[in-house]
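Entry 14. Ran structure prediction on the chain below.
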Amino acid sequence: MIFAEMVYPNEYWDFHSELKAHVASNFEHWDSGLQSDSWFWIFDGDQKVAIDTFSSMKHQIKSSTPGPLVQRVIDALKIKYEVNVYARPEFEGHEDGYVI
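Output, structure tokens:
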């Protein structure tokens, strides 16, 4: 599910390094990559939150379920960046509940 989307003027590939530094300064367990898309995985126990550009040209905050880590990620991003939080999470194309 997509919980929020970041707002920034740059292209996501130009923004990746800055976002990487911010994630690294706020979370202990994470991984990232930049190929055709930019992605970050943030872990806490069995929880995982993704920040990626797989379905948008801007980074979206995603998780398979709502939980405290989703909110912590959004809060950490909002310290420095504009984040549009959705009133209700949206399904990605591969998730149950997707309607064409």
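The CA atoms of residues 12 and 57 lie 7 Å apart. Will compare against last week's run tomorrow.
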